[in-house]
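Before a colleague's protein record goes any further, I have to sign it off. I want your independent view on whether this chain really folds as the C-alpha cells say. The record follows directly below this note.
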Amino acid sequence: MYPVVPGHEIIGEVVAAGAKVAGLKVGDRVGVGAQVYSVYTYNYKYADGAVAYGGYAERVRVSHHYAFRIPDALPSDQAAPLLCAGVTTFAPLKRLGVNVGTRVGVVGIGGLGHLALQFAAALGAEVTAISTSSNKADQARQLGATKFLLFNDDAAIAAAANAFDVVVVTTDQNDNDWARMLSLIDAGGKLLLLAAPNKPLAVPALAVLFGQRSIVGSLIGSREVEEATLAVAAEHNVRAWVHTLPLDQVNQGVQMVRDGKARYRVVLTTTH
C-alpha cells in the first residue's frame, strides 16, 4: 500500500510514553518486531484505517505490549534481527521440545539458519549444519554445530538416514529436494519449515507416511516467546552476525543480500 515505510526489526529509545504504558519508560532501549499491535509493523492498517509505518521512519508509535526491553548484554545491531528472525527460529524449537540430546539438523546457513544453529545449541541439542556449500563448515561450527553434512553428497546423506529428530529448513530455494530432507528424519520426527519457497512443496507422500513424520511450519511468536528469545540470547551469547551500514546506504545493503554476500544480516544504523 503505497506510500510504504518498511522495516520490522527495530531497536531504538522510548522518547514518549502514554499514561497507560506499563513496564517501559522514556529512555529505555527497546525493540519492535513484526507486530506493533495485532497488525503488521508496516504496510498494514489499524482497525481505524490508520497506516502502520515501519522502522525506516524517524519515529514509530506502537502499543507497549509489542515493545520489548533489550537486555544490556545484547548490542543493538546484533539484537535487532532477533526481533523477527530470532523469534521465528527460537519459538518452534522451544515448542517442539528441543532440549539436551535432541538431534537437530539445520538446512541452510543464512539469515535464519545461522540463528537456528545458535538457538538449538543453546537449548542443549546435538546440532548438525546441513548445506550445499562446504566452505561454510567452519562458520557452522563457530555457530554451535558439532557436525556438518554436505547436502549434495549422496553417500553422506545415505549414511545420515533417520539421524535427526528435527530438521529445520531455512532455505527458500524452489528446487529443494524434500524427499532427501525427509529421509534424514527418524520415526516420529519433524520437518520444520521456516522458509517460504514460491512453488508448492513437492513432497512424496510415502516419505511422510513411513516413519510417521510430520511437516510443521512457524512464523514469529507471542509476546512471551519474544521475551524468552531475548533472554536466552543474552544468557547463551546468541548473536546475529551482521554487516552494519548507515541508513542512506540501504540500496547497497539490499544488493548485498541479492548477491548472496551478506554474512548473515545487514543492519542499518541511524544517529539522531
Notes: DSSP finds nine helices and 13 strands in the chain. The first strand starts at residue 10 and ends at 13. The chain has two domains: 10-83+222-269, 85-217. The mean pLDDT is 95.
